[in-house]
Amino acid sequence: MDVKMKIFKHIPKPATAIAMILIVACGVTNAHAKADYHGIPLGAAAAKQGGALIAVCAACHGITGISAATEYPNLAAQRYNYLLKELEDFRDGARKSTIMSGMAMTIPASADNQNLKEIAAYFSRQSLLTTGVAPAPGVRANATQLKEGQKIYTQGLASDNIPACAACHGLGADGNGPMAIPALALQHEVYVLTQLDQFASGARSNSPGQVMT
After folding, report:
1. What is its main location (predicted)?
2. Whole-angstrom distance, CA of residue 61 vs CA of residue 119
3. CA within 20 to 30 Å of 93's CA: 3, 131, 147, 204, which one?
4. Max CA separation in the chain (angstroms)
């Protein structure tokens, strides 16, 4: 099977939105229970909420990794390997962002990427409460849409050769730490829909193995 699959280039926009709404709704109970930061020790710059490295990130993502703005992703309890990879990609230019490309360059260089590892470890250790995320404005789902979204997420769309999202992101949408696949449960709809659009257009192309492009 072609896992390069061009997933979201073939899903109609309404179906993409439906799938996205489901991703936010499913897996709430356990999606972020498995922080996998590998015991990375935190230095003074990231060991506490007031640490200099974290303070920079907190301006958009919140001091505990729960963003108040729906265009910025929640980072709390996100997979460590995924967070580290994205920070490296922003810094190295593999992932483009008008905000993060510049922000990543402001993080002081350190031996063995220690500063980036500490940032990833800090947010991976935070707790994402089920009550911590408000529904994104303008995104609403009825029972029919949620059922359609669940089908797309868990089964895919065979008629369009689209595999199930759950095949990589898990039935609980909690991601895959070793493969740097992100958790999606309780993420902001607006943010994830933006990422799907960017993968579809080619504006973002840094998924592992190019599986999303």
Report:
1. periplasm
2. 12
3. 3
4. 53
- Cα-Cα-Cα-Cα torsion 88, 91, 96, 97, nearest 10 degrees, comes to 110
Angstrom distance (rounded) from CA 8 to CA 16: 7
- Say if pTM beats, i.e. exceeds, 0.90: no
CA 90 to CA 171: how far, in whole Å? Answer: 28
**CB-CB contact of 67 with 60 (8 Å):** yes
| Tens of pLDDT, residues 63-115 | 989 998 989 999 999 999 999 999 999 999 999 999 999 999 888 888 888 88
Overall domain count for the chain:
2
| DSSP annotation of 26 | S
HSE at residue 131, side-chain half, CA atoms within 13 A, is 0
Cα 20 to Cα 196: distance, rounded to the nearest angstrom: 9
pLDDT higher than 80, residue 17: no
CATH code of the domain in which 143 resides? 1.10.760.10
Q: Do 48 and 19 lie in a common domain?
A: no
DSSP 42: P
- Answer yes or no: do 114 and 46 share one domain: yes
- Residue 106: CB atoms within 10 A of its CB come to 8
165 vs 83: CA distance, rounded Å:
20
| 124-146 tens-digit pLDDT | 988 876 545 555 555 666 788 88
Residue 97 is part of which domain span?
33-127
Q: Distance between CA atoms of 7 and 213, rounded to whole angstroms? A: 7
Query: Is 170 within 8 Å of 163 (Cβ atoms)?
Result: no
